[in-house]
Fold this protein.
Amino acid sequence: MSNGNPPEIADVSIQVEIYNQTYSIRSDGDNDYIFELADYVDRKMRDISSGTMTVDSLKVAILAALHIADEFYQLKDQQAQTDAQLASRSAECAEMLDRVIKQKDTLPQELETEQ
């Protein structure tokens, strides 16, 4: 019987492998997305480990986290610049539209005075 509350979404545990370690992750979201994230982290860790002499997985994880954080901050800055450009262009369009509307409003008045 229904108690009037919405049904709960069950947490599902999935297994992912990152840098030769298996992790059990509980998720109520898209499992494919979780696998994609895990694969991304795994690739970053492998890229970092191939470019350094360290075999310490904790150090590799920290370096990979710093690299991912750098990517995030660069994208965040790019998004802020894009937002600022969009705001500027929107303001320009609004000003142009205002001028067109004002010009359109004054045009009939000019025609009436000429007649």
In short: The chain has a mean pLDDT of 87.
